[in-house]
Write a structure and sequence with these properties.
Two copies of one chain form a homodimer. Chain A has helices at about 5-25, 30-35, 40-45, 50-70, 80-95, 105-110, 115-140, 150-175, 175-190. With about 200 residues, chain A is mainly α.
């Protein structure tokens, strides 16, 4: 196995720190100490903390986009079953660090203090998630599995809002109950008028 | 008009800072400089940053609980109209600082790094909001205005999850659109089976 590069080790540590402590709560000094990398190396790779966060976000977003596109294209499952699995998967994803977290949400929380470039990147990764999920919702509507009266893009945005809220409540102590609520209300929103006629 | 005490001025500045920059992003030094209070005064009033956040949260939670109990008890409006007004009011509340924010959400984001006492207080203020809202949802169910099949406590928790998610998305650039989604999906969840029979 190839030894991870110094840059990769810093990115991995940054991802864990930002998931656990948020962007503002992540100190570059302690982070570098935890992976035994001198400060000079950090500034060799990254111009600033925001530049570093952009690299962490790129790697995180690529991994989860890949994972979700594989699932969303899995023709062995009905579209609604793929959505259902996604609703379960995002709770597992939130548990990759020691406390429930979502890097998108952590950076969104810090967004008002961030520069235009990083905020733009954050808007893009949210938009990509929305578009992928909206396309799957449309497929499920065509199968009659999801309420045909729902706007797919808006419903996808809604499910992401609800997930980010669940992460926040899980961090505050609700834990798995927050994700159980997320799934329950997401399912009933999607099913609302499925199979029934619309006015 | 009575001049605000030094303690009150620090609490007001802390509330604004934490709403805008989050708990971790709030530096006590710059905050005190902004209200021209020496650091010694701060530690006269507060044992620590967490102790300070507890005081900020107490004042914030009391104000919004008072506001919500007045609205929820307003017999000139039907229960559902009171809920509707609350869904609008919480967007206005989120706009009290320069960027969309909720102190509960900001502290929830930081919660994994906070002490037991402050986390306990945070759980209490979320629980109080849930209970007040659940009681109003029950009233609206008795009037047939809200789906009688919904569990009031769980639905109240869901609406709060959804609001916290909307605040996060609003901070990331969605602005008022995030709150419009919040209201739209909250309304349709509440109305789902209202006036209809249940299986």
């Amino acid at each position: 196995m190839e030894k991870p590069s110094t840059r990769d080790r810093i990115v991995v540590a940054g991802r864990r720190a930002m998931l656990e402590q948020g962007y503002e709560g992540t100190g570059i000094g302690p982070l570098l100490a935890s992976v035994a990398v001198p400060k000079g190396s950090f500034y060799h790779f990254f111009a600033s903390k925001e530049d570093f966060a952009a690299a962490v976000l790129t790697s995180y977003a690529e991994q989860y986009r890949q994972q979700r596109l594989e699932l969303f294209a899995d023709a062995s499952l009905n579209p609604l079953a793929r959505i259902e699995r996604h609703l379960v998967q995002v709770e597992l994803d939130s548990a990759e660090a020691a406390v429930p977290g979502c890097l998108y949400g952590a950076l969104a929380h810090a967004a008002p203090g961030l520069g235009e470039e990083l905020r733009g990147q954050l808007a893009e990764v949210f938009a990509a998630w929305e578009q992928d999920l909206a396309a799957l919702i449309t497929e499920a509507q065509q199968e009659g599995e999801v309420d045909g009266g729902l706007d797919p893009a808006e419903t996808a945005a809604h499910l992401i809002d609800l997930y980010e809220g669940a992460v926040i409540r899980a961090r505050a102590g609700d834990g798995p109950a927050a994700f159980a609520r997320f799934r329950k209300f997401a399912r009933s929103t999607l099913a609302r008028g499925a199979g029934a006629s619309h006015d």
